[in-house]
Amino acid sequence: MVEHQLILFGPPGTSKSHRARAEKANDLGVDKARIVPVTFHPDYSYGEFVARLLPRTQDKQIEYHVHAGPFIRALAMAFVYQLEAFNGRELQNVVLLLDEINRGNCAEIFGDVFQLLDRDDDGWSSYEISVSDLVLEALEAELERVLGYPEPFSELPERLAQCLARRQLCLPPNLHMIGTMNTSDESIYFMDSAFKRRWHFEFCPEGFDQVPPEQCGALMPSAWALTWQTFVTALNRFIRERCTAPRLDDKLVGPWFIKARRKINTQALSEAYPEHLRVLEACAKKFGTLRGVQESKTFDETLKALAEELSEANQKPLLEHGGYDESAQLKFTKIRSESGHANPYYCSGKGIKKFKSDEKGLIVEDYLKELYEFELQELSHHIDRADIVGKLFFYLWDNVFERDKSPLCTLLGLEHQQLRTFGQFVEQAERFVECLCPKPIDIHALFETEFEKVAAASEEKFDFKFDKA
Known about the structure:
Elements: E1 5-10, H1 16-27, E2 35-39, H2 46-49, E3 51-58, E4 61-68, H3 70-86, E5 94-99, H4 106-110, E6 129-130, H5 133-147, H6 158-165, E7 168-169, E8 175-182, H7 193-196, E9 200-203, H8 213-216, H9 228-242, E10 261-268, H10 269-272, H11 274-284, H12 292-309, H13 312-321, E11 337-338, E12 345-346, H14 364-373, E13 375-382, H15 385-400, H16 406-412, H17 422-427, H18 429-436, H19 443-457
Parallel strand pairs: 1-8, 1-9, 2-5, 5-8
Antiparallel strand pairs: 3-4, 6-7, 10-13, 11-12
Helix pairs in contact: 3-5, 11-12, 11-14, 12-13
């Protein structure tokens, strides 16, 4: 169940906005069209949130028009779905999404709407509030715009119509509010306990559960294959152990603090699988001989086996490149075949019968030339150094260890005088990563080296075999 007023909170990079849209809204059966988004900020006001008068120039005359804020727009949408449910359709939910809810002055922004946040067991507001003509006009104009006919109040279900007739507002049960907030934000407004207790708070942890492999396994700029997940896990452990701030949840780093960048790497098939191509060449040399039929079948099997070793992104293009047809006797139909007898074979420019590439297809030598030039494409994900320095390092310097840089000095083995500016910290970027996540020791190689030293120093000659198991 998704609460009627829910705030997702946690360290930066814990995918709160995505969870609100993709998970919570989905649980409510709400698509993108029924989400009304708004982002709070220090200058955001009640008028922008609910309703206000805005000037507009028309025919060189200034006119004032009522502007409905996101709250009224979401409320009008919920009222329309209440009307449709009253007429026999399934009731649809609406989500008012309040991003960065703690960066605005909630007491000022919500104003009298605050009273509507108390809900009864059925999800309706426990108490109505009296509102100004301006707010009613904004709601009426928004309903008229959506429904397409004037005087929409009279068409609403009785409970809503009577409430509006008394010049009052209430929240229907199909209107949900979901807020998001970073607990690490320093420049936030105070939320009083009365406001907080009308919301359900759900913590978004910094772990990597349900994070896709391309983000978890994205490679860091490191001397060894260090993944983003390994690094962030070590970094958060370091913060927990060494940060002296009283609220550690505010200082941790989420898995999406930096989003992995995509990179497409290309490599020739001949470079990646030289042994397979040598086998194919050996088969091709015998196509014009008495073993042509058998070697053609071996060629088919070898090329199909090669395709099956490739990633899905490369397997399909390779099969299509060769005109692969599962139902054919010789599966790769792009290669010309001699089919004048019961057992066909691929055609070659060498041997007893000499063939050439023509409209019937390529001879095998020409096909192999194309195969050597066939490019494999592999999608990789990496964490860019510029993002590490410009986002993560600045966050660590300016927020996590703002008041006490000694944990950073200790980790890097520096004196306090050597780490007084952010520029000095940036110069230590590679060393910081290395100190947090040193390259693992190959224990097998270490023991093998030590055994070799013992054998070399011994007066007696003996052989040994190191069993890695």
